[in-house]
User: Fold this.
Amino acid sequence: MTATAAPTTFPRAWRTARVTPLAELLAPGRIAATAVRLGLQVFLVTCLWRALYAGTHSSAGLVKEQAVSYAVLAALATRIRGLDRGAGRDTVIQHIQYGTIVYWFLRPVPPQRYYLYRALGDQAYGFAWAAVAYALCRLTGVLQAPASAGAGAAFAVSLLLGQIVLYYLTLLIDLLCFWTIQNNSALLILQFAQNLLSGAYAPLWFFPGWFVAMSAVLPFQSTLNVPLSLYIGRIPLSDLPAQLAVQAVWVLLLALLTRLLWRRAAARVVSQGG
Amino acid sequence: MRAAIEARGLTKTFSTTKRQPGLRGTLRSLVAPQRVSKTAVEDVSFSVATGELVALLGPNGAGKSTTIKMLTGILTPTSGEASVVGTVPYRERERNARNIGAVFGQRSQLWWDLPARESFTILRDIYGVGEAEHAARLREFDDLLELSSFWDTRIRHLSLGQRVRCDLAAALLHDPPVVFLDEPTIGMDVVVKEQVRRFLRHQVEERGRTVLLTTHDMTEVERLAERVVLINHGRIVLDGTLDEIRQRFGGGWRVNATVLGENRVPCPEGLRILHEEGPRLVFGPGRGSELTPHQALKRIIECYDVADIAVEESDLEDVMRTAYLREAA
Assistant:
């Protein structure tokens, strides 16, 4: 028995990132269900957008191929980090409800770091799915190539920033659980707002001007509409610096806000006791 | 011997909003909330020596869990000081985390969707335990808790007894010198309880771990604890060995007798009838009486025509009941 605080080897807490992929691999049924769901989603959005463009060549500044590509990419990108993280009973709200959040504060890894590792693992796992599905969609001609090599690179950078914004938005809602205990309603609102205002339901270009103006001051469009519009060439590369700057500002603001909330949340656990 | 756990004047006061009944009351609580303070633990001081197993006992709501949460660093005391293996738990959380293991009743720290063995591997990574050391410790825990028969099953499919055994192993995988167990055997069957007790005895006697245990199971206390700290209404009311507690609150007895013929004889001096059902009578010591069970038997036999008689001396559960009631009065 070691009566000392030192670890015996260098801690590899980052390996907690593999929890979700491991759990999924141990449940082939879940993998099959995800594959079927994703395949169906891609098939249906392709049919829908092709049908919508049956009588027109261009709408909202998008031609059929661009609209279909946007919709398919949106379906794939939402897979990167779905909001159905409850299956493994390792969400903040579940731990607060079951009284097991105390264990997050009893380990030598701070809870915010553990949360980050888990989220990174989930996002990397989701990205693997999206990447495989992207390759298949490209091979079958469902998805067009990026508007240009530059657009492809811009898409990759913007998608990365968008995923960071999404991470912080999800974290923000999770942290609210420390005050509200129940935040199912907040999660549903976030899910709806995220899908609508990010452009997951339909490209934001199809919405009225006031809606687009409102979206521009919210963080949601940074997660999907900006990278996807760069991919299909609807946002020109000349706008890239401004778009990336907006995304970076959201990353910074949300990082500061969630950092503050983590500190308050920890103090709340300390004062109220798990 | 050096103290592994020390609590000095620990006090914890919670501040909550008082809810008023009805819609008007709810609105008033929102506009002008009325804050109320409740002291859960007051001036609690005790210490646990290295390699000692101490039971922290008390009725529900006595302040046991709050005390344990302050000692594990989850709660910061309103006043007072705590030290666990030389660390102030609520100030140096990460350092403290390596020194302690904890199990909170049926609340599992294991990953619901993964087999137990995978959870152990994740904890190995979190605590930075070497692979050979981890494997050796798992073997030891398997010998004592028979984990290998179910450790490849996902946590969600394990029975309560299996899950708690896994949780106990998980809490000790990083070899902590101090272990906090908050009602670890609650809801378990007797066979598993005994296995867990053997495991805990082994950890204390062979591995020299210090254990602070809360439980309502007096058999567990009798089998495991060398010392008992009794807490009630947030205050320590007794700190001593089981023998000391028996001497102070024990000494209770009852005599069950079946009498023949007319039993309307006056109750013998120094005794009182606690229960009467036909020919069966239950006697207890009269108010202020210091009769021994032997003297009571003699008096009952002298007064009655007895067909059957038996003495029932109070067990630890009775002793604790007396202690809780007397200290609450």
About this structure: The first strand of chain A starts at residue 58 and ends at 59.
